[in-house]
Amino acid sequence: MVFLSSFLISLPLLCLGASAQDLGGGGNLTIAFFGDSLEDSCQSNDTSKGLVLTTDSIPTSYTCFNVSDIFSQSDEVGFQNGTMPVREGDDQLVEPNGVHWLLEKADNYSSKTNYSRVWYEQTSPEGAREDGSWVFYVYAFKDCEQIVDGDNIDSNQFPWF
Question: Which side of the chain, N or C, has fewer Cβ within a 10 Å radius?
Answer without folding.
Answer: N
